[in-house]
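Just wondering, can you check both lines?
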Amino acid sequence: MTVQQLDETYRILIASPEVAPFAKTGGLADVAGSLPKALATMGNDVRVVMPKYRGITDHKTIGDFPVQVGSRKATAILREGMIRARLDGVERLVPVYFIDNYHYFDRDNMYMYFDEAERFTFFSKAILEMVRYLGWAPHVIHSNDWQTGLVPLLLREKCSHDTFYQGIASVFTIHNLQYQGNYPREVLHLIGLGDEYFTPESIEFYGNISFMKSGILYADVINTVSKTYAKEIQTPVYGQLMDGILRSRAQDVYGIVNGLNYHEFNPETDARIYRNYGLGNFQDKKENKYALQREINLPCGDMPLIGIVSRLVDQKGLDLIAEIIPDLLKQDVEFVLLGTGDPYYEELFRSFQRDYPRKIAAEIGFNVALAQRIYAGCDMFLMPSRFEPCGLGQLISMRYGTVPIVRSTGGLADTVTNYEPNRQVGNGFTFAEYSDDALIDAVRRAISVYHDRNRWMALVENTMRHDFSWNRSAAEYMSIYGVARNKLEAYSLPA
C-alpha cells in the first residue's frame, strides 16, 4: 500500500503512558509507537509524549519547567528522543518527548503504585505546560487511556481562556475500558479542581473521581480500537458501568481498528524466526513449525499445532481453553502457550504440560523472539476472549499465515471472518457464544479444514493477503482529527 499524501496536514501530539520501543506493557505501546510513524509519512508534524521511566536512556535534555500539583510545584524535566519512521521509501523522524521527574517516574515498574493519581495528574498537566514551553501548539492532542484522561478536561476547563490553547482540539482513545483510573474525591485538589466537578454530570463516578470519565466527557471526539468494541461498550454487558456516559456521547464515539507494523512483522524478513518465507515460498513455513516443535520439546510432525500468546488473565478466555483441553487432546494435535499473568492460570497450564508432556508446551513468562517463532511456526492461533477491544495476536498470526480461531467480539469480530469451505471465503474460524462447546466446535472445524490441504492453503492465502497495515488506520485517524477540529471551531463561533 502506498503512502497517502494529504491535501491537509496537521500538527499532532500523541500522549500516551507507554510507547514502543521505549516502554511497553501491552498493545497501547504498539499503537503509540506505530501510529505516529504512519501519520508522519503522510506529511503531518507528529510528536509523541510519554513519562520518562527508569531504563529509558536514549535521549537528550531540552530543559525544565514547573508543574502545579495540588499545593506544590513539581519540576518537569523535558527530554527528547526519536522514532524513525519508514514507509514505502519515505523516511521521517518523529520526536518523542519524555516528561521526567525522579520522584514520580524513577521506579522499578511503570504502574501499580499507591500514588498513581498524583503521578498521572502531574503527567497530564505537564503535557499542556510542555507545548507552551516548546512554543508549539498542535492542532490536535490525541490522549490515550485513563492515564491521560485529564488532558481533555484541563484543555477545555483550565486553558480555554488562553489564546495559545484555543485552537487545540482533543481526541481521546479508549484502549481498554476495564482500566479506568478511579480515585478518591481528594484527588480533585491535586488536579486543581473545585467540588463543582464532583457531580454525576462531571467526573464523579460512584463516589470517586474517574480519569477515564474525564476523557470521555471532555474530549471533542472519542474513539476506541475497533468498530465492534465502540458499539459493545455502549451496552451494560461490556460498558464497565460507563455505558450510559458513552451513550450520552454516542454521536462522538468512533471505532478504528489498530494497524500492524508491517515492517516489524514480516515473515519474509523477520530475523527472529527460523526461516523466512512468504506466499511465494510458503513451504518454508513448515521448517519453522518443525524447529519450534524441537525448541519446545514436542514431537515433530504434521499434526495441527495450535499457538497461544497471551496475558494470562480472565479476559482472554483461558477458562474455556482449560475446559476443552482434555477432550481436544484425544485428537492428534499439539498446543504451545506463551504468557504470564494470573498465578492461577500460570500454574494451571504448567499442570497441563506435566499431564500431557507430548501434547502441550507451556512457556510461562514472555520472550519476544519466541512469540514470533510461535506466530510463524503454528498452524492455528487461539483467541477465545471474553472481550477484546482490538487484539494484536490475530493480526500478527494472519500476517504469518497462521489461521486465527477467535470469539467474535470487539476487534476480533472486525478482523476475522468465518471460513466457509464451500465458498472458500473467510480468513479464520469464529464462534459467538462464550462457551466451551462453541470453542471446541470452532477448533474442530479448523482441524477438519486443515486436513483438506487444498482448502487449507486457500484459507492461508486469504489470511496473508488481508491488509491490516497502519497506513489504512492512520487515514481513519486523520478523518476523526478533522471532525475534532470542526467541533472545536463550532464551539468557538459566536452565538
The radius of gyration is 23 Å. The first strand starts at residue 11 and ends at 15. Residues 430 and 493 are 48 Å apart (CA to CA). The chain has two domains: 11-259+471-492, 279-467.
